């Protein structure tokens, strides 16, 4: 009978397992294999940034498996390592499964040896054993179990090999009494341990952990053990013994750092274990496949051009292939609007549903194909291991602008949509780096801004130049972002540079199933946003632009329209009516009110309003401009007449300033919410709002005046 | 005094000393970069701003500033 059952009969047959291992050894994938869960899996360290619990039943047992973020050692270097360390030390669980990468045993055992000094039951899962066998690495698991004193089980999460053996071993271990793992140090350290153990034994010190483990942890300067013993009466006598012991160990290792000394102790113990249990045939030095690929992909000269080519290819695919289904989606929503509109009698309700909700949601769903392609590209980047290489290549360049090499991942994602970009900024360990990256993600023009750019480029430039103008807009946005990063780094986010020490994982072929799951989950999230938030925002814009009604104005125009002689005059009058109504709507009132603020940039009230509705979502800017230039609300960027209206009504300098504002200011409301959540405090949102608005205003002012002078 | 920063590509070196303390030292140790460990320089990023080294079977990227703190000798 285990202790848990005695204390609490309700949790009988319940086993809580903590899954621990170094980063990127396949912990999440192992959970997926065990329980058919769908945790996010990637090929770089830091995919799991918070602990996740998964429940499943096996035989007569209920299992709770806690997937902990990967940690190289028991340090608190990154947020994830802190999560893992705190969990292992403070939380209640029954057993640890230590997942190790069988192809890299010695390095993985470093964490294992630290786990063995805890008073917990441990099982070692030798993961990726199939890959190891392929590399001619043979591990004697039975001998290893005997040497370490803990069960070692060969598994492969990818092929689901040995999974049942692992769970059986967990049950068996859970039912058995704790047995002491064997961890042997060098003679001088063993002597010091023996002395402390003798002292604790002499005073019959009460503790859950073994005297040996307490001694080791004390010698290692383990804070938590110190805290526990500090208030004990024996502390006064123990302290001098400890100081003396540490001095001896440091002397023996010729180091002034006892932690370093212990790391060396562990390393030599692990070397011994590996020498005993691991046989590798074909030991002649030959380059691995990963090294061969790296010779090309991170070549000092060709590495960056190759990366740029991949990115260009991804954007090309995103826009080219993504454009194909767009037509059909557009047609579908027009059809849907007409069909549903026909069934609604009340004009106001019909307008709300068709012009408000369906048009608004449709504008967002339109971008789903682009989003899917971009997400597939990013999933490939994540699961092959290429991402770490790009971080390696770009770190030098990014560092000059105060950014961390790993910032590039969220920034690239930002070209698709700011929301996943904000979320992927979590891979940055340091809070300051992460905040800095969050602040400049908005400078990477997202997909939703494309229609606005297309509209304006088409209105002011000949067809053959419009493409290059688009390219210039995107690149100058990104460049501006880098400059902004530098400015922020020198002012708001001043601080010591975070060291860049990162593992470069082995290249892996991505599994189709895995990519499918990742892309599906992300796409569903995007669609959910369209159905909930965008629908709400669209309703709000619709309301603001339709109310308050003005019956006298309407009647006045209707009589005019009836009297009108030609069809074209009727249409003209109808447009004039729409414009007059809009001008006195809530939206019009807001526009008129804010007009003086935007006057120095050369904007009329209509452009001011379009910018403000654009705060909800950039898709709304084009449709608002369409409404405001009296052409009806179902205008998109393809419409020639809106293009004409814009080129006739908006001076070139104002248009340039308008584009500059669109490039820089807040992406959209949904993104702002995600930003606030990721940044951790509402105050950062206000900083972002202030920062982007200020930069947008100043840059637009400069652009406006320069264009006025030149033109 | 020779540091990892001065090493050319394909050079194999033994670590003599880590001239740093605190978090970064712990970090390097947890990656296996400690006294007596043998490193091989695999590649430099453009302008030698970042170095890729191999230790055991693991590949690690670190900045020149960090590499400068690792005292090494040729093996």
Report the uncertain regions of chain B. none
By CATH reckoning, the class of chain B would read: Mainly Beta
Radius of gyration of chain B: 11 Å
Structural class of chain A: alpha/beta
Q: Largest sheet of chain B, if any?
A: 5 strands, antiparallel
Query: Number of DSSP strands of chain B?
Result: 5
Provide the CATH topology of chain B: SH3 type barrels
Please explain how this structure is put together.
The complex is a heterodimer of chains A (711) and B (75). Chain A is 65% helix and 7% strand. By secondary structure, chain A is α/β, with parallel strands linked by helices. In chain A, the strands form two sheets. In chain A, strands 2-3-1-4-5-7 form a six-stranded mixed beta sheet, with helices on both faces. In chain A, helix 14 (303-343) packs antiparallel against helix 16 and helix 24 (551-563) packs antiparallel against helix 25. Residues 1-10 and 630-638 of chain A have low confidence and may be disordered. Chain B is of the alpha+beta class. Chain B has a single domain, classed as Ferrous iron transport protein A (FeoA) (SH3 type barrels), CATH 2.30.30.90. Chain B has a five-stranded antiparallel beta sheet. Chain B is globular. The mean pLDDT of chain B is 88. Chain A binds chain B through residues 72-73, 75, 77, 103-104, 106-107, 110, 255, 257, 259-260, 263-264, 267, 290-291, 294-295, 298-301, 303-304, 388, 391-393, 395-397, 399, 405, 497, 499-504, and chain B through 18, 21, 23-32, 34-37, 42-47, 49-50, 52, 55-63, 65-66. Strand 9 (501-504) of chain A pairs antiparallel with strand 4 of chain B.
């Amino acid at each position: 009978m285990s202790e848990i059952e005695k204390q609490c009969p309700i949790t009988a047959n319940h086993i809580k397992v903590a899954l621990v291992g170094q980063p990127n050894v396949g912990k999440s994938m192992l959970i997926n294999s065990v329980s058919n869960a769908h945790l996010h899996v990637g090929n770089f360290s830091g995919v799991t940034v918070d602990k996740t619990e998964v429940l499943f039943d096996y035989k007569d047992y209920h299992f709770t498996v806690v997937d902990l973020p990967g940690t190289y050692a028991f340090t608190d270097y990154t947020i994830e390592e802190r999560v893992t360390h705190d969990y292992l030390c403070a939380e209640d669980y029954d057993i640890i499964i230590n997942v190790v990468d069988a192809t890299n045993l010695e390095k993985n055992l470093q964490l294992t040896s630290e786990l063995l000094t805890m008073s917990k039951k441990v099982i070692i899962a030798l993961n990726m054993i199939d890959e190891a066998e392929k590399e001619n690495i043979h591990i004697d698991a039975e001998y290893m179990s005997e040497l370490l004193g803990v069960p070692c089980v060969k598994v492969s999460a990818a092929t689901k090999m040995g999974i049942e053996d692992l769970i059986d071993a967990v049950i068996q271990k859970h039912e058995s009494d704790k047995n002491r793992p064997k961890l042997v140090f060098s003679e001088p350290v063993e002597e010091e341990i023996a002395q402390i153990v003798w002292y604790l034994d002499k005073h019959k010190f009460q503790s859950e952990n073994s005297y040996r483990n307490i001694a080791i942890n004390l010698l290692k300067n383990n804070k938590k053990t110190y805290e526990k013993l500090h208030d004990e009466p024996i502390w006064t006598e123990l302290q001098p013994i400890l100081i003396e012991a540490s001095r001896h160990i440091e002397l023996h290792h010729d180091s002034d750092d006892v932690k370093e000394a212990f790391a060396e102790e562990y390393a030599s113990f692990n070397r011994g274990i590996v020498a005993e249990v691991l046989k590798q045939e074909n030991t002649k030095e030959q380059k691995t496949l990963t090294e061969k690929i790296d010779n090309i992909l991170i070549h000092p000269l060709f590495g960056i051009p190759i990366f740029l080519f991949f990115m260009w290819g991804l954007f090309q695919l995103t826009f080219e292939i993504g454009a194909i289904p767009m037509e059909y989606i557009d047609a579908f929503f027009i059809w849907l609007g007409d069909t549903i509109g026909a069934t609604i009698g009340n004009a106001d309700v019909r307008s709300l549903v068709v012009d408000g909700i369906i048009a608004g949601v449709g504008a967002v769903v339109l971008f789903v194909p682009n989003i899917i392609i971009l997400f597939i590209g990013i999933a490939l980047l994540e699961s092959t291991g290429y991402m770490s290489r790009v971080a390696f290549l770009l770190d030098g360049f990014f560092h000059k602008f105060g950014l961390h090499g790993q910032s590039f991942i969220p920034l690239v994602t930002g070209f698709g949509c700011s929301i996943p970009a904000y979320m992927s900024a979590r891979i940055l360990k340091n809070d300051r780096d992460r905040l800095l990256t969050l602040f400049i993600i908005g400078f990477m023009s997202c997909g939703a801004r494309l229609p606005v750019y297309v509209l304006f480029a088409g209105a002011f430039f000949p067809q053959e130049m419009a493409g290059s103008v688009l390219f210039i807009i995107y690149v100058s946005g990104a460049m501006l972002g880098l400059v902004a990063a530098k400015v922020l780094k020198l002012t708001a986010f001043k601080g010591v540079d975070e060291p860049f020490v990162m593992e470069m994982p082995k290249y892996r072929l991505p599994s189709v199933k895995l990519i499918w799951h990742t892309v599906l989950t992300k796409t569903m999230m995007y669609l959910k946003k369209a159905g909930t938030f965008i629908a709400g925002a669209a309703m709000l814009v619709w309301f603001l632009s339709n109310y308050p009604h003005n019956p006298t104005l309407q009647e006045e125009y209707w009589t005019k329209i009836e009297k009108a002689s030609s069809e074209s005059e009727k249409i003209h009058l109808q447009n004039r009516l729409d414009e007059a109504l809009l001008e006195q709507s809530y939206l019009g009132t807001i526009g008129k009110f804010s007009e003086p603020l935007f006057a120095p940039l050369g904007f009329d009230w209509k452009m001011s309003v379009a910018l403000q509705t654009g705060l909800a979502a950039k898709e709304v800017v084009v449709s608002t401009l369409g409404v405001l230039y009296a052409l009806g609300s179902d205008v998109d960027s393809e419409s020639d007449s809106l293009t004409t209206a814009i080129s006739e009504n908006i001076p070139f300098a104002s248009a340039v300033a308008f584009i500059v504002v669109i490039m820089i200011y807040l992406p959209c409301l949904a993104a702002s919410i995600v930003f606030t959540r990721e940044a951790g405090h509402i105050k950062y949102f206000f900083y972002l709002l202030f920062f982007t608005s200020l930069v947008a205003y100043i840059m637009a002012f400069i652009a406006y005046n320069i264009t006025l002078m030149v033109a | 005094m020779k540091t990892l920063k001065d090493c050319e590509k394909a050079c194999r070196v033994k670590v003599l000393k880590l001239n740093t303390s605190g978090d970064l030292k712990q970090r390097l140790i947890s990656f296996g970069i400690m006294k007596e460990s043998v490193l091989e320089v695999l590649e430099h990023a453009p302008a030698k701003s970042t170095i890729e080294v191999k230790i055991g079977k693991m590949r690690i990227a670190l900045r020149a500033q960090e590499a400068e703190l690792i005292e090494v000798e040729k093996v």
